[in-house]
Amino acid sequence: MTETLEVPAATPSKPKARNSHPIRSLLVQRLLTGVVSVVVISIVVYAATLVLPGDAATAILGQQATPERLVELRHQLHLDQSAISGYLSWAKAALHGDFGTSLTQRAPVWDLMAPRLANSIVLIVATAIISTVLGVLLGMWAAARRDSWVDHSLSVTALVASSLPEFVVAVFVVMVFAVTMFAWFPAVSILPEGEHIWNEPNKLVLPVVALVIVVTPYVFRMFRASLIEAMSSDYVEVATLKGASTRRLLFGHALPNSLAATIQVIGLNLLYLAGGIALVETVFQYPGIGLSLVASITDRDVPVIQFLVVLLAIAYVFLNVATDVAVLLVTPRRRLPR
Amino acid sequence: MTDTASPATPPKQQAPPKRHGSVFRIVRGALASRRGQVGLALTLLVVGIAFVGPFLPSRSPTEFSGVPYSLPGNGNGVLGTDALGRDVLARLLHGGWSLLLLAAISTVLAVLLGAIAGVVAAYRGHLTEMLIMRTVDIMLAISQLVFVLLIVSVIGAKTWLVVVAVTLCQAPQVARVMYASAQDICERDFVKAVALWGVPPRKVIMRHIMPSLTTPLAVEGGLRLSFSIILIAGLNFLGFGTQPPNPSWGVMVNENRLGLATSYWGVLAPAIVLAILAVGTNVFADALARVAFGGEDGEDVPVATALELTKA
Amino acid sequence: MTDLPELATLPRETAPPSRDGLVVEGLTVVTEVRGTPVVEDISFRVAPGQVLGLVGESGSGKSTVGVALLGLARKGLRIAAGRVCIGGVDILELRGKDLQGARGRLVAYVPQDPASGLNPALRVGRQLREAIIIHGDSLEHETVDQRVTQLMEEVGLPATKAFLNSYPHQMSGGQQQRVGIAMAFSCRPRVIVLDEPTTGLDVTTQRRVLETVRQMTVEHDVTSVYVSHDLAVVAQLADQTAVLYAGRLVEHAATEAFAARVTRTPLVFSRPSPAPPAARSWSASKAGHHGRGAGPKAVPSPNGVDPSMMNAARNCRRCVTSETFSLIG
To answer: Average per-residue pLDDT in chain C?
Structure first.
């Protein structure tokens, strides 16, 4: 995983004044920042096409640049207008659902991308669910048996697994499960164009396995650490002295206090997955937006690039807001004013 | 983490990670731990392959020496041949140094840029702080990979561009950590006193603030280096960065993928080497963090430190 | 007010543990790694309905003694020896489920920091009910809610649904502390250990909390052990006072007798006061670390203390401190 384990999604700021509707004001603030971010990113993406060395259209078409095609392409990319009005036309069309036409495949971007988007979402959701459940269970096990051999071996495994680059993990997974030892699953997950992954679920398995290996260690580590921190707190000591059993301490006291950090890690994982699946999808040739992003960048398929990058930006904003709200919901201290 | 034995425990404040001395000391401390030793050994092993490899006698890494995807033996080399019939071992030996060099350069630049940005933001406050940190937030909102891909897609897959792109996407992370650490320092009286004496901000930052920040800088630098290596390898894998016919471990993993069923060394050898390097650097960075921020046995220091930062 | 005999003259063989009250004998807590004693050979007895003030400076081990009364040794420590008898049960002999059953039911604890002693993620009502639910046998013909309501009235907090549904951070420090006290009294234990519960509270709140403790101790015939470094607070509240110094119990007597010696600031370091008459235990404690016997060979002085020892002790911080606390007479 190329992202770090730093948990806060935004820079820690100085304490704000108390307000009476923390959820609402948080939503508003984050959404505003989010919208601004999306707009900025869309401008950057659009400007990228203008910055191409030489004339953008020529650079894209390269050797296939006949005069007619040049004109056609320039018009399509709004390059025949000024920069600002070109951007506005592009943005307006996008807001109306028209995302342009793919340069390499000559079909509307949305028609091409929709099934791929669905495939990637399936991959992400499956990974998120499995990795969360696994990470939470293992984290709880390790925290309850703190400093035992179970804890040590799990922690070391997590450290190693979280260090490995994701494409290396994917390659190893393919080696073990598809090629050499157990030829149970297909080594690649190629589907016919426009096909959905749930029609051939055995092609979903190995990519999920690879991603789960990459992502679970973070959930495990954070959950374990926050459980341990909660268990060494004053309130757990007080509960112990009330005669509470270990089970009650773990589930009734430590767990509610570990939710916030764990939710943040899950949110970070989702963020990472949204962008980082490109590598795993490439290894498996999995028909998702990660593969499309790489392909479109290699082919200079500008409308597709624009669509995917802005889509990812929106996904990030949404995930950030959802994570922050969820954390707020489980932290009574911030949710309810005095 | 809570000191339950002390009387009158004050409420938990958000404090930047504690410092325990100079960079030298934490490196020495890291080397004293088993984790640090293992991590360093693994890292040096791969670094050795990368930088000494080109000087070892082997076949040419770029010339065709046999039938593609041949298994080892029968005059096909120790590791067989790759997709184009080139010797895998030779390409392995020659395929590391550029990766590590680029990663090292990007890391140094990212740390410099990020440190300056973060410290200036903490010191100046007000508008400068807001501008810098909001930019950092926005940049952090994009996946590192996507960000680099975007830049590369615009200008092309040139090597220097990869360095710039990786620098730009690592710098915000450094900036954020340095910002958090610097905030505490900037509040200290000695900094305010020095500023009141009329010392120009540049000198205040360089001479008085930075020296106190060497520890988080070193730890963060270690982390960034390991991520840079992984990131650049990943980019190579996707086809950006080192161009054929030059060998690079990341490129090798990709270009030999089709032979995975038959002659897998073309993929497996660079993958294993990359894995060892990644694990080694990460484990060593973990050992550094442990010494720098102090951790009990079995405590997960990077995570615990991140936890503290969230208890705002 | 019972006048307990001095420590030095307490017969060493243990008297049969009384049905009520708290009897501590030879309590010793050491570090886990090296076995260095942190508190050594602590013994005292407190009758029900009485408050014992356990005082000492920071690091004297008073908090360690406090939690040891519940069979707990904090991180890095181990209870090495001793007995803590409550209602005929030696807490230190209990393990596992038996120990869990005794904690909260026979002996309870009020933490030092009310804010961190309450779980920030759980509602206050839930935390109040917890001990009662754990020890189901403590209820007598009443429901859990009825007991909670009664507890709230006793500590002077509103028994409303709104209050019970609120979270700890929504209350003031004084309210939090009274919740802590209510939690401790919830199963009607025989002994309650209060670990500096008024630290950090303003004087008015402090007074209210002390009154609550006093009242509930008497009302429920509970033995309270009040750990504190603040002699002034202890003087108001405790019936007896015991002094801990460097892990050892150096004095134990009725508080009234202390009050006579202690004026404003209890700890006077530089001015040795004239030795009190018949200072037997006093000189006994000095004998140890000045290396000179204060036994029968000592030349009696008008003050009853060996003059050479007096000189040696004049500049010894430790002797001067215990001198301040010692009373006799």
So the answer is: 76
ipTM for the predicted complex comes to: 0.79
Give CA B227 to chain center in angstroms: 4
Q: Model-level pTM greater than 0.90?
A: no
Q: CA A306: distance to chain centroid?
A: 18
CA distance linking residue C310 with residue C326, whole number of Å: 15
Span B257-262, average pLDDT: 77
DSSP bridge partners of C85: C23, C90
Name which of C181, C215, A5 is nearest B306 in CA terms.
A5
* 3-class state of residue C244 by DSSP: strand
| pLDDT tens, residue by residue, A155-206 | 989 989 988 998 999 988 888 887 665 666 777 777 777 777 777 778 888 8
Put simply, whether B310 touches C (Cβ < 8 Å) is no
Output phi, psi for C251, to 5 deg. -150, 155
Contact status, residue A269 vs residue A219, Cβ threshold 8 Å: yes
Task: List phi, psi (to 5°) of C262.
Answer: -90, 120
Token reading at A31: 């959404």
Chain B closest CA to A51's CA: distance in Å?
A: 7
Q: Pick from B69, B136, B140, B251 the residue to mutate for testing the A interface (most A CBs within 10 Å).
A: B140
By Cβ distance, the residue of A234, A248, A333 closest to C117 is A234
CB contact under 8 Å between B307 and A53, yes or no, is no
Consecutive H or E run containing C222: none
Nearest CA in chain C to B1: C75
Find the helix or strand (DSSP H, E) in which C167 lies. Answer: none
Q: What is the DSSP string of C49-92?
A: T-EEEEE--TTSSHHHHHHHTTT---TTEEEEEEEEEETTEEGG
Identity of residue B312: A
Tell me, rounded to whole angstroms, the distance of Cα C86 from its chain centroid.
15
Q: In this predicted structure, which of A103-117, B2-16, B138-152 has the lowest mean pLDDT?
A: B2-16
Going B243 to B249 to B250 to B256, the CA torsion angle's sign is positive
What pLDDT, in 10s, does the model give residues B165-186? Answer: 899 989 998 998 888 888 878 7
Q: With helix as H, strand as E and coil as C, how does chain B read? A: CCCCCCCCCCCCCCCCCCCCCCHHHHHHHHHHCHHHHHHHHHHHHHHHHHHHHHHCCCCCCCCECCCCCCCCCCCCCCCCECCCCEEHHHHHHHCCHHHHHHHHHHHHHHHHHHHHHHHHHHHHCHHHHHHHHHHHHHHHHCCHHHHHHHHHHHHCCCHHHHHHHHHHHHHHHHHHHHHHHHHHHHCCHHHHHHHHCCCCHHHHHHHHHHHHHHHHHHHHHHHHHHHHHHHHHHHHHHCCCCCCCCCCHHHHHHHCHHHHCCCCHHHHHHHHHHHHHHHHHHHHHHHHHHHHHCCCCCCCHHHHHHHHHHCC
Cα–Cα distance, A113 to A102 (Å, whole number): 10
Write out chain B residues lying below 8 Å of A316, CB-based.
141-143
Residue with tokens 């916030």: A260
Instruction: Give long-range contacts, CB 8 A cutoff, 24+ apart: A9-15.
Output: A9/A264, A9/A267, A9/A268, A9/A320, A9/A323, A9/A324, A10/A320, A10/B137, A11/B133, A11/B136, A11/B137, A11/B176, A11/B179, A11/B180, A12/B14, A12/B180, A12/B309, A12/B312, A15/B312
Task: Pick the closest to residue A230 from C116, C176, B309 (CA basis).
Answer: C116
Distance (Å, whole) CA B26 – CA B29: 5
- Best of B2, B4, B13 to substitute, by most chain C Cβ atoms within 10 angstroms, is B4
Contacting chains of A (3 CB pairs or more, <8 Å) are B, C
The crossing angle, in degrees rounded to 10, of helices B214-238 and A166-174 is 50
Mutation to test the C interface, candidates A241, A257, A331, most C Cβ within 10 Å:
A241
| Amino acid at the residue B246 | N
